[in-house]
Amino acid sequence: MSDHMDVADDAAFEPKVWDLGPETEYRFELDPGMCLVIVVLRGNAEIFGAELVEGKQHVFAGECKAAVYTWKGCSIEVTGRPSTEYTSDETLPMTAYANLHIAFEQMRVKALAHLRGSPIPDGPSRVTSESPRVLVLGPENSGKTSACKVLVNYAARSRMGWVPVLVNTDPREGGWAVPGAITAAPVAAPITTPSASLPLGAAASSAPTINPSNALLPLVYCYGHTDVQRNHLLLDRVIRNLGASVGDRFEANPEARSSGVVVDTPSTFAAGPANTASVRSKLIRACVDAFKINVILVIGHEKLNIEMQRTYGSQLTVVKIPKSGGVVELDPSYRDRILNMQLHTYFYGESFTPPPGLKLRSNAVYGGEALSDLVLSPASTTVGFEELAVWQIGEKSLAPSSALPVGATRTVSEMQPILIDPSKPGSGLLNAVLALLALPADGDERERYDEEVLDLGVVGFLVVTAIDIPRRKMTILSPSPMVFAGRTAIRGSVEWQEQ
Ligand SMILES: Nc1ncnc2c1ncn2[C@@H]1O[C@H](COP(=O)(O)OP(=O)(O)OP(=O)(O)O)[C@@H](O)[C@H]1O
């Protein structure tokens, strides 16, 4: 049953109290420029598994769409003017997530006991002593990212002190960085959802000097495009690189492995035109291999569930879970706006105007952060053409795979790094988003190789805001002041647009 409300203009900014019964949720959607403040008056409430602290003002903006869920019932006070708000008791997927969480918790406990050589709980176990390494698949708008957040947040909230790794392989979403990136981070405290431009909450990558409460330090690799089909060989390679980096972290800290991994994927892995089927299955395979997946969750897609059962059923567990009725259908224009908003947020942070008539208290939070920590000050630096080497991967006029004749395959050139000459008019560098690469590890120079730029992690993203060809200089926007001399960057197809 759903209790829909039409939002009346005149009463919109009066606080409204919603009493939620057990296992129900209050769903809301914000239009551009809107801000919503929610206070839990009584009971326990959570957003995608992250608890809302009672009595605190929780601020939402940036076209956020989410649901306040309660297991046992609660009262919340809501101030603002959402474009849609209603309550629903059709929350069956939350029960499915809770059951999965309990099963994953047992796997973690056994994995840790095994590692420490302690007796395995529940006697000799049928279940292996592996931690849960979960791949989440589903079509567009099926709630994959929300499901990942719930599962990771429940683990991070557990008293066992788990720090699960959340991986985002959806380059359209950009995870903790910018669109075009794929990222992974150990999650020690629940991830919040204050805004659509911070789909996985804030991270320290764009503003290392602030965000004191958020210690997330993601591993970042650059794919450079938002379209999975554009250069799937490259995406396959960066997914495997990200998996290797996560593996290295586990090598360095074996107990961290027992918390497990949850991998979010793009909807294009699950569904798409028939001629993309082999690419899709190769990319799913890349994830299964890279993160040593032992559980595949398929959200609301029977055909894919059967396909996964057939392909992987003998070696790992495939579970189908229902799609939540609350998941919002995101249209292409919304996705374009969010892409730009996410880029801007990476450099400038967030800003919002509180609902008229509402005074925000000093302890109000925006996704777990104090309001004073939201605005960032990027740096603008002039750099000589010779100082920063910018590469692109593959040929300039790379057509998407879907545009190739049926049966045609790409040549190796799509994985070939090509140095961009900024002095050439039409180099495509102006307004390009660049991924600044980590320095190669010290070592034998002979170990360096031509395609090295494909395999290096990213330390931050930059934008070329001006090019002066006569003076051979370009102006670069970076999240914080940086020295670029001798550094290497990659350009993809993501472009900066002024807002
Ligand atoms: N129960 C819910 N109530 C309200 N909004 C929700 C609910 N579940 C998900 N949403 C919102 O719906 C939108 C889509 O959900 P989500 O991003 O989880 O789906 P997805 O399958 O990962 O999307 P994509 O198509 O980008 O891969 C998001 O804005 C999310 O916050």
UniProtKB/TrEMBL annotation:
Record GO biological process: mRNA 3'-end processing; tRNA splicing, via endonucleolytic cleavage and ligation
Domain called Clp1 N-terminal: residue spans: 20-111
Annotated localization: Nucleus
Domain of life: Eukaryota
Protein keywords: ATP-binding, mRNA processing, Nucleotide-binding, Nucleus
One GO cellular component term: mRNA cleavage factor complex
Principal cellular location given in the protein's record: nucleus
MF term (GO), any: polynucleotide 5'-hydroxyl-kinase activity
Residues annotated as binding ATP: 25, 65, 141-146
Key word ATP-binding present: yes
Annotated Clp1 C-terminal domain residues: 376-498
Stretches assigned to the Clp1 P-loop domain: 138-349
Summary of subunit composition and partner proteins: Component of a pre-mRNA cleavage factor complex. Interacts directly with PCF11.
Record function comment: Required for endonucleolytic cleavage during polyadenylation-dependent pre-mRNA 3'-end formation.
HAMAP family reported in the protein's UniProt record: Clp1
Family per similarity comment: Belongs to the Clp1 family. Clp1 subfamily.
PANTHER family documented for this protein: CLEAVAGE/POLYADENYLATION FACTOR IA SUBUNIT CLP1P, POLYRIBONUCLEOTIDE 5'-HYDROXYL-KINASE CLP1
Protein name: Polynucleotide 5'-hydroxyl-kinase GRC3
Organism: Pterulicium gracile
Gene: CLP1
